[in-house]
Amino acid sequence: AAAVSRFDEPKHDDTAQRVDKPRETNEPVHEEGSQDSGASRDRVDDILTKLEKRGDNLKDIRCRVKFVEQDRINLATRTKVGEILFLMVEPNPYFMIHFERTEADGLLGKQEWYLFDGRWLYEAIERLPQVTKREIARPGDKLDMFNLETAPFPLPFGQKKDKILRNFDVTLADPAPGDPKGTDHLICIPKADSAMAERYEKLEFFVRRDVHLPSRIVVTKNKGLEISTADFPDLSARQWLGFARTIYRDQGGRPRLSYDARLRDAVEAAIEAAPADLWPLFDALAGLAILTVRGGNSDILSAETLAEMARRRPDMAHVTVPNRGHAPFLDEPAAVAAIDKFLERHAG
Question: How many CA atoms lie within 13 A of 320 on its CB side?
């Protein structure tokens, strides 16, 4: 868990936004392998229309995310793997991004958390006692999080078609090896007179045909020397409000933790202390029915430890839920099936 013990003073920082160097030329670029026929233009229009409508009807999203930053100047690569939770509420949406695994050039890093509650953006890093708190929207402000031109951090789905076409020349690329399955590949080159030309060299959206949401976004900057790729491998408009209500309560229209936040103190103490030998406690469960549900990406309960648990208790039921950290939400199909089977076996 993140150490959250004090907050920075909130600040309005209108100068913090990074501005990348503009492209040397912003003439429309025809990408190799892109389609440029009238039928292709109609297809682009159809994809963007469905993408916008999906945003209009969007209520909530939960999905995995893999974010890779490539710095070709310094020959550095940074990878983050985690989960996104998004909930559309008025006046502004909530979202949380948790990167449970970060890696820079092969070296493991710390977990990271980003939480936006409609007004404040909180940023936390594992084992650091300080949480950064920035005011994004003043009281009464309503943000259009789908507006590429004005949003403080535009959401990667539900973008408005007119804003995209006003700022970018958009083409449909031919399918290629390595594309996410079932997607259309849109290549967006900023127009010369667009503010986007100062921020991006190229945007690429791989839009899924079934849910009309992007499963991959590639951002290219600085003449191709900076490339960021975000993959959303299990993106769907899944309900996570029920999960949110298990750990938060509504207090005056704002989410508040429904458990004692000081529980983190015990977690912090355990992290700093010498590792305890928990095997005697596990062995003490002899004779009791056990089901262990492990997240496939967990760095707390390793696959090796689970294997040893199964060796000591051959009768123990266990399942590993793919694409989950620690701990799974227990509403994943694999988790639900294992729980149902366990309860049926031991009912009564």
Answer: 14
Q: Provide the CB-side half-sphere exposure for 323 (13 A, CA).
A: 16
Tokens of 142: 């309503």
Question: Tell me, what's the pLDDT at 245?
Answer: 65
Distance of CA 306 to the CA centre of its chain: 27
Please state the pTM of the whole predicted model. 0.61
Instruction: Transcribe 306-323 into DSSP letters.
Output: HHHHHHH-TT-EEEEETT
pLDDT in tens, 202-228: 999 999 988 888 889 999 998 889 999
Phi then psi dihedrals of residue 286, to 5 deg: -55, 135
Determine the pLDDT at residue 91. Answer: 87
Q: Is residue 122 within 8 Å of 133, Cβ to Cβ? A: yes
* Side-chain-facing half-sphere of 152: CA atoms under 13 Å: 20
Q: What is the CA radius of gyration of the chain?
A: 23
**Separation CA 233–CA 236 (nearest Å):** 9
d(CA 143, CA 91): 8
H-helix or E-strand containing 177? none
Distances (CA, A) of 313 to 8, 10, 271, 276, 328: 48, 52, 27, 20, 22
- Residues 152 and 95: their CA atoms lie apart, in Å, by 14
